[in-house]
Each structure stands twice: as C-alpha cells, then as structure tokens.
From TrEMBL:
It comes from Butyricimonas hominis. Residues 1-24 form the signal peptide. It holds the Pfam family fn3. The lineage of its organism: Bacteria, Pseudomonadati, Bacteroidota, Bacteroidia, Bacteroidales. Keywords: Signal. Residues 35-127 form the Fibronectin type-III domain. This is Fibronectin type III domain-containing protein. The keyword Signal applies. InterPro entries: FN3_dom, FN3_sf, Ig-like_fold. It comes from the Bacteria.
C-alpha cells in the first residue's frame, strides 16, 4: 500500500513538473514590427537633409534593430536604398542641389523587415534664402 501511494505521488509530481516546464517554456511568437511613422525632413540644405520618423507602435515582441531608409526623386519613381540607421533619425548627404526627393522607412527585428512607412512629401534640396 505504501508503495502504491509513493508511486502515485511520484507520477503526480512528475506530471506537475512536466506541465510546469511546458508552461514555463511556452513563448509568444515574435513577428515583424509594424511600419514606422512618416518620415519628416526637419533640416534641409543644398545637398542633403535630416529626416525623423516615429518608431513602430508594435515592435513585434522583439526590439527594432535597424531602420532601412529609401528615397526616390520626381523623375524616377523606383525606390533606391540609401542606408541603415539604428535610431529614428537619418541624415542624407551628397544629394544634387535643386532636386526633389521623397523618403520612406522600414523597421527590422529578428523576425524580419516591416512594410515601409508612409511616403514623405517631396522636398527640394536648396539653401536658405
């Protein structure tokens, strides 16, 4: 009888232990982040500008590692990759004076790359008057 009780307790303990480990091991799936906010040019000069954008509202359960910056000009509507930023700001340099450009940004985490942000308005690279 004592042996049966110990056997029952052992099975109950092992079952509880396995259940606890399974529950503790369960995790939330990590997904790609939401798209970042619209890029906004906050400082413009003859051959470049500085843009800012908001971090995604949802990082997908894992912090955003990088932001991928793209641009296009008014004559060529295909997007060109420009660079990577680890922050919510990016500085464009070596653009042609008196040309127009639009920007968009994507965010990435360990699950992948988000959809691109909304598209900025066209800005013109020129000095202050």
């Amino acid at each position: 009888m004592k042996k049966d009780i110990l056997k029952s307790l052992l099975f109950a303990f092992l079952g509880l232990g396995i259940t606890t480990l399974t529950f503790a091991g369960a995790s939330t799936a990590i997904t790609v982040p939401d798209k970042p906010g619209f890029p906004l040019a906050i400082n413009i000069w003859e051959t470049g500008c500085q843009i800012k954008y908001r971090a995604p509202k949802n990082d997908g359960g894992n912090p955003v590692a990088n932001y991928y910056i793209e641009y296009r000009n008014q004559w060529n509507l295909s997007w060109k990759f420009r660079g990577i930023s680890k922050t919510t700001e990016y500085q464009f340099k070596e653009m042609k004076e008196n040309t127009n450009a639009q920007f968009r940004v994507s965010a990435s985490n360990s699950a992948g790359i988000s959809n691109p942000s909304g598209i900025s308005d066209f800005i013109t690279f020129r000095g202050r008057f």
